[in-house]
Amino acid sequence: MDNIKELFDKAKDCETAEELVALAKENGYELDLEDAEAYYQEISEGELADEELDNVAGGQDGCVGDRKAYRYKTWSRKEDVEFLFQPGDHVEAYPPFLGEHTAGCKVVSMYANGIRQNEWRDEYWLEKDPGCSTLFAKGYYTRDRIQVQGK
Question: Per the database record, which ranges form the Nif11 domain (predicted)?
Fold first, then answer.
């Protein structure tokens, strides 16, 4: 499905988070059940107005286009993890369900996550900026889900 607005119209018709996962997969998007449950809760709390739907496709500032995220990176020691962002920073993040579209977010906290023995990565707890209409599940995001600043 090429038109993101059509996809959101179909998403509003889903009656469960599982149906959202299936819809995403059917349209070439990756969406896990946890994110689907957050999106389902958000879209089922009330209908989005047409004006809001126009904004949904592009994040707070209408950011869409070639994906320019930071490269995924790991470190062998926790104390060597380098953080790109600090709490309070505003960033554009790529929600799992929206492909190239971004959502305006605020960094709430940062975390060095040990994903395997001797393998650590930087993660950031992001929450949607007030006024951002894009569907976005707050939670931990890795640097490769955050748009390169100034792009």
Answer: 6-35
